[in-house]
Amino acid sequence: MRSSKLFPSIVAALALAAALPGCSKDSDKPEVTAENIQEAEPVVEQHDNATVAWTVENDGKVKALVKTPDGKPADKNVTGTLTVRPVAKDPVPTTVPLVYDEKAGLMTATIPPLEYDLTEVKYDIKVNDKPVKGALHLPPGGTKDLVLNAKASAEVKLPEGKKGPNGGVIQVVGKDTIEIVGDKSNGTTRVYFLDADLKPVKVAPEKTVKIAVVTNTGPETIILAPDPGGLYFHGKFGAVVNPHKITVAVSTPEHTHVVLCGWHPGKVVVVGAAAPAVAVFVPVSWGVGVVKPVVVVHDDDDDDDHVVFIGKGKGKHHKHGKHGKVHIKIH
Asked: Mapping DSSP to helix (H, G, I), strand (E, B) and coil, where does residue 180 land?
């Protein structure tokens, strides 16, 4: 009888111990440092002047290992900033400094938590006084989610070098296989959903699609509108240049899958002048006609990138902050 009375007390004690901060699994996770950052499966971007390994967590903690072309850590010879902009209508950008953490041997920053379907993190840094610029486009789970989604996409085997039925790029995103194809004459871009035979199928009405690209002129993002007939999503890029990075977010009210096209963990992303281009803009024969107005939103921060929004494109993680100063044109 005595043991039966003690049992609830033991269970309660164990539950309390598990709830204590010192006993949580998160506290057991090692701090990311220059020595172990590869274990965190970072997104590594290679520039002419440096290579940067990035980890970004959901709560906004950013860590970056910067190395010079000879493979040596840049350490304190790095300065710069991150500019964070949600891919949403009326985005409010936030700029924060990158600071060298001598103990970790990494550049660090704290940005707003990743609460949107897709968030742009643009970096502008100098390594030994040489510029290194680029952008990450991240899901709510940060670089960890990019890694998990890339691994899941790799499990679906597609024919090597296979083009889509419209000549575009094929990519697996979550449970969907899509084709991304743009008109090289004007930047109009479509996303088709494909079946197991890589044939276009009607789009589920609850889905939304966002695309982010990075070219030598900078990053650009669009929120695509559904075709009234349900055959595809469509939008328009301002810069009609084949990008060296394409990130796609496909969302439902329950979940968002974000994939960096063609990337898998451990693969270095080459950016800058030496980067290979992704042939997403091709000759097409879609005809002429605009179903809905196009709202073009330009920010006033005097940088070269801009965001084009078409349709509503709401997602699960969308929030709306205060309106920034913008110019809006209806075409």
From this structure: strand
Q: Kind of pairing, strands 176-183 and 281-282?
A: parallel
CA–CA distance, 65 with 34 (Å, rounded to integer): 6
Cβ atoms within 10 A of the Cβ of 44, count? 19
Alpha-carbon span 248 to 233, nearest angstrom: 12
pLDDT tens across 23-45, in order?
434 445 668 888 889 999 999 99
Can you tell me the distance from the alpha carbon of 237 to that of 226, in angstroms, rounded to the nearest whole number?
16
Q: What is the DSSP letter of 136?
A: E
Amino acid at 141: G
Quick one: which of 186, 161, 176 has its CA closest to 248? Answer: 176
How confident is the model over 64-97, as pLDDT tens digits?
999 999 999 997 789 999 999 999 888 899 999 9
Q: Write down all domains in the chain, each with its CATH number in brackets.
A: 27-138 (2.60.40.3340), 142-330 (no CATH)
Residue that the structure tokens 């709401």 belong to: 314
Taking the CB of residue 53, how many other CB atoms lie within 10 A of it?
A: 22
Q: Can you read off the two tokens belonging to residue 137? A: 């486009």
Give the predicted TM-score (pTM) of the model.
0.77
